[in-house]
Design goal:
With 177 residues, this protein is an alpha/beta fold. It has a single domain (3-157), classed as 2-Layer Sandwich (Nucleotidyltransferase, domain 5), CATH 3.30.420. The chain has five helices and five strands; from the N terminus they run E-E-E-H-E-H-E-H-H-H. It has helices at residues 42-60, 76-95, 105-113, 120-130, 139-164; strands at 3-9, 14-23, 26-36, 64-68, 99-103. A five-stranded mixed sheet has the order 3-2-1-4-5. Helix 3 packs across helix 5 (139-164) and helix 4 (120-130) packs across helix 5. Its main location: cytoplasm. Belongs to the RuvC family.
Length: 177
Amino acid sequence: MAEIILGIDPGSRKTGYGVIKIQGSALVYLGSGCINAGSGALYKRLQTIFVAVSTIIEQFSPTVFAIEETFLSKNVQSTVKLSEARAAAMIAGSNAGLEIFEYTPRQIKQAVVGYGAAQKHQVQYMVERILKLSGTPQADAADALACAICHGYTSAVTKAMRFTAPVGNFGHGRFQN
């Protein structure tokens, strides 16, 4: 069965989403966009995020959910709101029975661009190339797709390691005859 990955780039005003499928050794673009939660009361924005992510899950039937971890900002209020938006999206994934994977911004950039401190335009460029898109995705959607790509690469490496890991007792660090 093909793995379908929903990637989320959380934000209290704009939450990016991206959906890809692992088909053999290729990553295939299925869809992306932004959930515009607006600028109203926070609880209403969180509800908008939750409902929209739930709808995206119904539409694309992902098998896993990947989300960017919260980074610490100098503005504590912004960090708290970002964490709450992230939680609203994660609850939608959890309610759908999806396993949730979390990646730091640095891990995502490293996986997609090869440099953990890459700029947004570099992430957009690489997402466009990796997924063979006809145009550059909007920044929040590109970040969400990058999160999904990061999980796809991580998942592929984990699966490869399972099949190539040595089997047997190697004497706990000593050679045995």
